[in-house]
Write a structure and sequence with these properties.
about 475 residues, alpha/beta, pyruvate-formate lyase- activating enzyme, 7-stranded mixed sheet, 6-stranded parallel sheet, globular
Length: about 475
């Protein structure tokens, strides 16, 4: 069969009141979930596999239609996230207009949270719950045999008007058995980000599942059980990428540093193989020590993204972060000792947060003085403790996300925590926070002095213009 995996355009993303400066997650990164599925199918089936990344190719919907028509797929698979659901639906409709017999398969966090609502959407044929590699392959094996599909865990489909949900498939324990993402099926040299040091960059997963319990975050389709790839598997993938001309990486694990010895082993293997790469990681401050930082520095790590989230102990407890401002301050100081750049994440509009708390966060941002900050307004996402607490307390008046899942419309605006502030007030504060950090003369001078190339200058200049233009 001809299998087409599509990363749809991102023209109708639900972003609410969150203007973005650090665009590391907005269309610059390869769709790793689809690439893992493609890699698994390439190794374990004889299907013809094609990937269209409409975002990096900057395709309009009319252009996308022409691309799909030229492929004539039998099955189309997509990752559905709640915030991009409108674009997923528009792409589904294009596929069915071209050929109503083409089967549509959706996976990802949205279908995991809202399987019944999603399978009832027009033109959706199958859902894959949880991790998709094995279940999607088995679905293709038996796509014409309903009796066999009923035996495969992790599927949702209709049979004679009845919704069949075969249950959640257990997480894949041995991630080393999965083939590497099929980057060669994409225009991989087009991927980059504001923070990348070289012209071509990519993302990499070295683990799945997050063991922490922050109240604002949830990755339901990957689970809470932390599962990690071996250090040799990770470095094998890095080495494969270098042979493709990719030398810049963002390690996309929720928290790369959960297992400290594994981090050290990965660093030692990078050094042993003499890989000339740049890479960033995402980490919690309570998983970092001097030995880890020394190993990261020696292995070429050029950025750590820390989730700080708030500047007051009160709000950190509300968010269930399990860290203190003192710990953050100490780890930032230690990280600077090793001259590793820092990106810090912060949020405003949190439960119980007052204007004083928000200004405390802004003060802490400047006191910590990371190389970059990423500031957002809290969105109570579906599946999170904050969202369920809001419904229980009736701070969130109705189940917005469930209603949206059942009847997606482009006019939908995501809820915020409106105990104290309106959306417009939070947006104004967000802009004030960004400007108070990025428009400091000392910060601008520091960034100019750190530039290494004209390409880097252009990317930073675009981000700077955005700060001035925010409104």
């Amino acid at each position: 069969m001809k299998i087409l995996l599509i990363n749809p355009p991102r023209e109708n993303e639900i972003i609410g009141n969150n203007p973005s400066i650090i665009e590391e997650e907005r269309g610059h990164n390869p769709p790793l979930g689809l690439l893992y599925v493609a890699g698994y199918l390439k190794k374990n089936s004889n299907h013809s596999i094609t990937i269209i990344d409409a975002q990096v190719e900057e395709l309009s919907y009319s252009s996308l239609s022409s691309w799909i028509s030229s492929i004539e797929p039998d099955v189309v698979g997509m990752t559905a996230m709640t915030l991009t659901l409108i674009d997923v639906i528009k792409t589904i409709n294009i596929v069915k207009e071209l050929d109503k017999n083409t089967k549509i398969v959706l996976g990802g966090p949205h279908v995991h949270l809202f399987p019944n609502e999603t399978i009832k959407l027009k033109n959706v044929d199958y859902l894959v719950l949880g991790e998709g590699e094995e279940a999607f392959k088995e679905l293709l094996d038996y796509i014409e045999d309903i009796s066999q599909l009923r035996k495969i865990q992790g599927l949702v489909f209709r049979d004679n008007g009845n919704i069949i949900n075969t249950g959640i498939r257990p997480p894949i324990k041995n991630l080393d058995k999965l083939p590497f993402p099929a980057r060669h099926l994409t225009p991989y040299k087009k991927y980059n980000s504001l923070l990348s040091k070289r012209e071509v960059s990519t993302t990499i997963f070295t683990s799945r599942g997050c063991p922490y319990k922050c109240s604002f975050c949830d990755r339901p389709h990957l689970g809470k059980q932390f599962r990690a790839r071996s250090f040799t598997s990770v470095v094998d993938e890095l080495e494969e990428c270098t042979r493709m001309g990719i030398y810049d990486f963002l390690f996309y694990d929720d928290t790369f540093t959960v297992n400290k010895q594994r981090v050290i082993d990965i660093c030692n293997e990078i050094i042993k193989r003499k890989l000339d790469i740049c890479w960033d990681i995402r980490a919690r401050v309570d998983t970092i020590n001097e030995q880890i930082l020394n190993s990261l520095k020696m292995a070429g790590c050029q950025g750590i993204h820390y989730g700080v989230e708030a500047g007051s102990e009160k709000i950190l407890k509300v968010l269930n972060k399990g860290i203190t401002i003192k710990k953050v301050r100490d780890v930032f100081k230690l990280t600077r000792k090793y001259k590793i750049p820092i990106l810090a994440y912060f949020m405003i509009g949190n439960p119980t947060e007052t204007l004083k708390d928000i200004y405390t966060t802004f003060s802490v941002m400047k006191m910590l003085n990371p190389d970059y900050v990423h500031l957002t307004i809290l969105t109570p996402f579906p599946g999170t403790k904050i969202y369920y607490d809001g419904l229980k307390k009736e701070t969130i008046k109705k189940d917005y996300w469930k209603e949206f899942a059942a009847n997606p419309t482009s006019e939908f605006m995501p809820p915020h925590w409106d105990e104290v502030f309106t959306k417009n007030e939070l947006k104004d504060l967000l802009i004030k926070g960004y400007r108070s950090f990025y428009l400091r003369p000392s910060y601008i001078f520091k960034r100019i002095c750190s530039l290494n190339s004209f390409g880097e200058f252009k990317k930073k200049a675009v981000a700077g213009i955005k700060v001035f233009a925010m409104k």
